[in-house]
Input
Amino acid sequence: MIQYFQRALIILIIFSIGSTVYLYNYPAFHRCAFPLQADTHARAPFRLLALGDPQLEGDSSLPNPEDALFPSVVSLWEDLATTASVARWSQVTRQSLANLFTSDLPRILQSYRKRLDLLGNDYYLAHIYRTLHRKLDPTHVTVLGDLLGSQWINDQEFESRGWRYWQRAFQDGLRVDDELSGGIHVGILGQDDTWKRRIINVAGNHDVGYAGDMNNERIQRFEKIFGRTNWETRFRLARRNVTNDTVDLPELRIIVLNSLNLDTPAVDEDLQRDTYGFINNIIVASRPVEDETTGTILLTHLPLHKEEGVCVDSPFFDFYDGDEGNGVKEQNHLSYNAGKGILEGIYGMSGNPQAPNEGLGRNGIILTGHDHEGCDVYHHLPYHPDPDSRIWRAERWVTSTSRLNKTIPGIREITVRSMMGDFGGNAGLLSAWFDDQGQRWRFEYSTCSLGVQHIWWAIHVLDLVTIGLASFAALGNVYNVGV
Output
């Protein structure tokens, strides 16, 4: 019997070690890597780890802590104090005991299970971030909105989840300093290694609300803990990375945009004006449209408009009724006009051959969140004899033929699949580099998925069981030796 136990334990130890090695090195097993430069096959100077919609839940999903732990026991003492007959005492006692075992205890066990689930989810998210950060060495990190699970939580709960975000899920990560996100900061790409630890947080609807419920208080508490909602930073290549001395230093623009109040009606029109004012400032401060040495990466939460069937989420809007201000209550995408404003405003695309850069606009890429399933599309403006009849269209990137047509404007938008366990613990890997021969920035994207959270749980439970059994066996051997 002892021999069978020892053999089983050896097999368990081998399996436990193997699965743990896999868990902590899953990027290598899944062959995850940032795309290499197409021309030199060297590592790109800009490598963005993009994470979507962690949605940390919290105490709002747990029983009210002010409620009695055992309501049936409390009611029992109250009923006994007002009951005179012995028969009634017996009936009340039996009923309270039944409530204790059928209601109170299951509720308490469910409460502890939920607390354990929240703790495990925090460390599951942390495992994704830490492992990818350690193994793949990104130069920058972004979380594309819905950091938390609800915009309706009170300030105390918001701060509690904010603490869990920084101390558990993204431990060692840093909030982007207001000095960096105020105004336009220009740095040399790769010169400041602290950017590897800074988390570029994008505001999501579960963080600050949609246009119909976003207010200044929600924006302020988000910015206090996670950073500004609208800001821009720029990185230029060092001269040693550019072989052609006749060009200006290539520049990569990172634009963080709160797109949640671009559509109307908005409950706080001042906040909406601030967002549109920020967009106008971006346009004014941009290099000329025809300057292809600039690449623009837009980070925002809401995806741009797409026709039904292109992605999992179809176009959808819902609004509050008149008593609540008629504002936007929910939306899957930006409206067509709001998306058009981004494409034609920030990126300067028009399709007009008489416009700067022949209407093709600026070079860049767009990263969004919100749609947990993720999507990868190409927005383009097909030709039409009547310029006023041209309409923006979106096609799946992998099947798009329009992206091969260099005479019409277009840009890639990637909606990063959620990093939540139900969606496989996904992460996006974006590489950007300056093609000196083509004199423009190039962008390539890949993904890396850990798998559902049950894998993380199962391996850690297996490790605990293995350690426990191995310790028991070791103590047994010591005891036998002593005998």
Notes: The mean pLDDT is 88. The longest helix spans residues 86-136.
